[in-house]
Amino acid sequence: MQDRRSGLVEALRRPRYEVIPLPGVEDGVAEHVPRHVKITVTASPKKGLEPTLELAERLSGEGFEVAPHLSARLIRDRAQLGEILARLRGAGIRDVFVVAGDAPEPAGEFEGSAALLGAMAEIGHGLEDVGITGYPESHPLISDEATIQAMYQKEPHATYITSQICFDTDTINNWVLRVRRRGVGLPIYVGMPGAVSMAKLVRISSNIGLGESARFLQKYGNWFWRMFMPGGYSPDALVEGVSDSLAHPERKVSGFHIYTFNEVQKTEAWRLAALERAGAKAHERHKEPTA
């Protein structure tokens, strides 16, 4: 068991920030986010994969490590998959996050993430990292044991797990233990919201379209309504609660995946303040971590 403080500081120094490919986000990331913070870019069934790929390419060109989402249900076939992978490699992108996606019907042969992962392995994706989703809370359509079994089956094709947002630290920590007992050994990035204003959330909801807004609320509704509470929502308690798992190397909790909802300036300010509260020295807060 390592020191809780050192584990928490290391996780806060190496977060992953998730952004949505909407106007203005590229400038916000370039202005406010340090280059050692990895940026993940979501994919939208309304707009397709192209905005995701374009933003990922541009951010990579600006010196960021980027992990675009590859939505299985938005990819037609292996030919298109091969073109996408070649395009990403050409842009210096070495990490992707594979999801089934929210499109009501698949664009082609890939019904879900398992099929896409298998195809990527068969054609040779040439990437260093491939992420898959974890569900600390019960999925509305899939049992807990089924989601963990799915991770076990996907493990040979993946290198890490990113969890969906969950607000109960006991649920998160217990889920990590269940995943390990099942034999899944992939490192886990715990998903949590960043510092987001209600006004920003409403603007994003209107930009992603009515159907996607409904799915958004279904997915993040319990957090959305917390934004109406006095003072809004702070991830501080969640970070502190998860630090227990960070202190146990055998649990392989590698850090935080922060859903910024494009509020990157506020999220980065929160991260630096959280580092200070965790006892990080000034050079630890601002200096790029060593590999």
TrEMBL record:
Can you supply one Gene Ontology CC term for this chain's record? cytosol
The protein's annotated catalytic reaction(s) are: (6S)-5-methyl-5,6,7,8-tetrahydrofolate + NAD(+) = (6R)-5,10-methylene-5,6,7,8-tetrahydrofolate + NADH + H(+)
Q: Which Pfam families match?
A: MTHFR
What InterPro entries does the entry give? FAD-linked_oxidoreductase-like, Mehydrof_redctse-like
What pathway does the annotation place this protein in?
One-carbon metabolism; tetrahydrofolate interconversion
The transmembrane segments are none
Any one GO biological process: tetrahydrofolate interconversion
Q: Output the Gene Ontology terms for molecular function.
A: FAD binding; methylenetetrahydrofolate reductase (NADH) activity
Q: Which cofactor does it need?
A: FAD
Kindly state which keywords UniProt assigns to this record, in alphabetical order: FAD, Flavoprotein, Oxidoreductase
According to its UniProt record, which protein family does this protein belong to?
Belongs to the methylenetetrahydrofolate reductase family.
Q: What is this protein called?
A: Methylenetetrahydrofolate reductase
Source organism: uncultured Rubrobacteraceae bacterium
Q: What is the lineage of its organism?
A: Bacteria, Bacillati, Actinomycetota, Rubrobacteria, Rubrobacterales
